[in-house]
Amino acid sequence: MPIILENVSVFYSKNTPLEIAALKDVNLRIERGEFVGILGEKGAGKSTLIKLFNGLLRPDSGKITVNGLDPSSKQVKSKVGMVFQQAADQLFCRTVYEEIAFGPLNFGYSRKETEERVFEALEAASLDRSMLSRDPLSLSGGEMQRVALASALALRPDYLVLDEPITGLDPAGKKEILDTLKKIKGQGTTIITVTHNLKGFFPLLEKIILVKEGRIGFQGSRKEYMEAENVPLPPIASMMRELSSRGVPVNLAIFSVEEALEEILKVKSMIEKGKAEETQPEKL
Ligand SMILES: Nc1ncnc2c1ncn2[C@@H]1O[C@H](COP(=O)(O)OP(=O)(O)OP(=O)(O)O)[C@@H](O)[C@H]1O
Ligand SMILES: [Mg+2]
């Protein structure tokens, strides 16, 4: 079941001279299994939007449902995992183990079930077991981010929601988080991420939502976004267009080296198969 927002508005400091309409009449639908990027300028309303998904914020008007339920219900809270931009602000336990175990214990799972979930989440977040006894705040930025990720994953969420997960990380840290998210998505979790780093995330995104001054400026596929917003093509997409213009029948909706490699190998084997069939002697 999807996340559905119908005519949702959110105000801060409502009915005061400082009132701010952070979201205005937002209509949105996020399907299960998608990898969604939420883009937009500073102050556009991105963080406000994602805080609605697990009931951290409630709309002042309009309606939001997650899997058909109210997001502030307990069932939804365990189904929507959140990772905030400043992972350090989210970590409060003495050890990494306690940090990751906190959610499952809080939701009433047994010690044994919790332990299984801690190990599973640790592995999903590409962390080593040797890290379990460490103080979370003694870790590097990238490691903290992954502990926050593991804490969210320990509840086996249907939706994983992240706010700027790679901002401030070094290139190796960024790549680790991107690879980890790709893996988690491959296991069936819907991923929704706020990001300024379109370049890093672009190859992974299946749907893009652009928030503009509290409204949805655009929602659609990566390809539609590039056309609508006049985004310059990444070099790999230009190369695919060049191949196509030379008569190689490649798919043009390709934005990463991995996708390009897969597509080229597919087309190559198709061409070779065609040639082999042409040269087969006809059966009598
Ligand atoms: N707790 C708050 N109290 C009052 N105003 C707020 C609060 N949080 C956000 N705002 C305001 O609401 C608007 C939307 O903020 P939000 O944090 O959702 O934007 P954002 O798109 O996440 O921005 P950024 O890219 O800077 O993180 C902004 O004008 C912001 O100043
Ligand atoms: Mg924000």
Key words describing this protein structure:
alpha/beta, Rossmann fold, 11 helices, 9 strands, binds adenosine-5'-triphosphate, binds magnesium ion
Question: Which small compounds were modeled alongside the protein?
Answer: adenosine-5'-triphosphate, magnesium ion
The H-level CATH homologous superfamily of the largest domain, spelled out, is: P-loop containing nucleotide triphosphate hydrolases
CATH architecture descriptor name of the largest domain: 3-Layer(aba) Sandwich
Uncertain regions: pLDDT < 50 for 5+ in a row? none
How many DSSP E strands? Answer: 9
**N-end to C-end Cα span:** 55 Å
Secondary-structure map:
Layout: E1 3-12, E2 20-30, E3 35-40, H1 46-51, E4 61-66, H2 74-77, E5 80-83, H3 87-90, H4 96-106, H5 111-124, H6 141-153, E6 159-163, H7 171-186, E7 190-194, H8 198-201, E8 207-212, E9 215-220, H9 222-229, H10 235-245, H11 257-279
Parallel strand pairs: 3-7, 3-8, 5-6, 6-7
Antiparallel strand pairs: 1-2, 1-4, 8-9
Helix pairs in contact: 4-5, 4-6, 5-6, 6-7
Bound molecules: adenosine-5'-triphosphate and magnesium ion.
